[in-house]
């Protein structure tokens, strides 16, 4: 009986070790399976024509396997920064926007955009405006947005 008992005792640790290895493969360290992996590109602000308001554009890229939500944007350059969604010809302020898994959230001229309200000073071409993007799940991302000419159109179309 003792050899059979010894076999059972070895089988349990082997099963536990195998399960631990399987779980390690599902860990959150890779960012590709169970969590968002966010970065920002193509950020710019056309030099505002108004002393009090400006628009901002950028692309949030998610290389991870889980979606996230952009919930707010803050900047010392403005009293508030709001998220605006454009559907058809209608623009409306929203409280959050989805960043899909393995996808992107695009802010572009004529589409979704950031609205800087109550500017503390009017940014001019060549300066940078610092913003912090806040997400439902991921940590904040700080972005330096370059101020371009008022008529700037990026080569990427956004």
Keywords:
158 residues, alpha+beta
End-to-end distance, in Å?
74 Å
Shape annotation: globular
How many helix segments?
Answer: 1
Structural class: alpha+beta
Write the element-wise H/E pattern from the N-terminal end onward.
HEEEEEEEEEE
Count of beta strands: 10
Kindly estimate the percentage of residues that lie in beta strands according to DSSP.
35-45%
Mean of all residue-level pLDDT scores: 84
Rg to the nearest angstrom?
23 Å
Helix content: 10-25%
> Spans with pLDDT under 50 lasting ≥5 residues?
5-32
The largest sheet is: 10 strands, mixed
How would you portray this structure in words?
By secondary structure, the protein is α+β, with helices and mostly antiparallel strands. Helix content is 15%, strand content 45%. The chain is built from one helix and ten strands, in the order H-E-E-E-E-E-E-E-E-E-E. The protein has one helix spanning 2-25, and strands at residues 38-46, 53-62, 68-74, 78-87, 90-94, 97-99, 103-106, 113-119, 128-135, 141-148. Strands 1, 2, 3, 4, 5, 6, 7, 8, 9 and 10 form a ten-stranded mixed beta sheet that branches. Strand 9 (128-135) and strand 10 form a beta hairpin. The model is unreliable at 5-32 (pLDDT under 50).
């Amino acid at each position: 009986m003792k050899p059979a008992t010894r076999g059972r005792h070895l089988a349990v640790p082997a099963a536990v070790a195998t399960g631990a290895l399987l779980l390690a493969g599902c860990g959150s360290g890779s960012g590709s399976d169970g969590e968002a992996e966010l970065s920002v590109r193509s950020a710019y602000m056309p030099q505002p024509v108004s002393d009090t308001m400006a628009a901002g554009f950028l692309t949030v890229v998610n290389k991870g396997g889980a979606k996230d939500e952009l919930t707010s944007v803050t900047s010392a350059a403005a009293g508030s920064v709001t998220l605006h969604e454009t559907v058809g010809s209608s623009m409306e302020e929203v409280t959050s926007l989805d960043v899909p898994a393995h996808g992107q959230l695009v802010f572009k001229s004529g589409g979704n955009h950031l609205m800087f309200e109550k500017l503390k000073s009017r940014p001019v071409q060549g300066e940078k405006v610092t913003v912090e993007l806040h997400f439902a799940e991921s940590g904040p991302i700080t972005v330096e947005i370059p101020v371009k000419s008022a008529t700037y159109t990026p080569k990427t179309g956004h």
